[in-house]
Amino acid sequence: MKFTATSRSVQGSSASRRLRRAGRVPAIVYGGKSAPANLELDHNEIYHALNKEEFHASILDMSLDGKIEPVLVRAVQWHPYKAQVLHVDFQRVDASQAVNTKIPVHYLNADQSPAVKLAGQVVTHGPTELGITCLPANLPQFIEVDLGHMIGNSRVHLADITLPIGVKFVPHGEDVNPLLAQASAPKGAAADDAAETPAAE
To answer: Which SS3 state, helix, strand or coil, does residue 14 take?
Structure first.
């Protein structure tokens, strides 16, 4: 994905407020061999881009003063109650250096699984994103987890799926094999079953 940025020479909170009133967004890009650079973005363009999932999990082509630089979104500051972007941080990407980032997890086919269709259970999902590391060329936009094979009371952990080639999971804390999904009886079902079971005489 591509977006346009312009160099910003004036800094400070007053300058940032003036930019926002003019429909612009202050930003910064850092990393690589170049010094951090202050930028400004068109608010409408970046607002709509940030509302697309792939913008957060892709190597982006930033057109800065006519030069294309590959970057990743690193942080976004939103207004607490307005639909307004206040600031964006980008990181330069080196094709030869691995990047650490988070990518979305897409869960598929849970409603087609035996756990749901045959056992009448509910499949609940785990994390909506995972931390990963890989070279920029190997960065996937998302990871798919097919739940169509799940049976009653089964679980799916990260070790049960195959990550894309060149992609490694970066654990958060000590959980090196997070639970991604599990099938279980609907809430209240166990109590209902117990109530319907006749007492032994």
So the answer is: helix
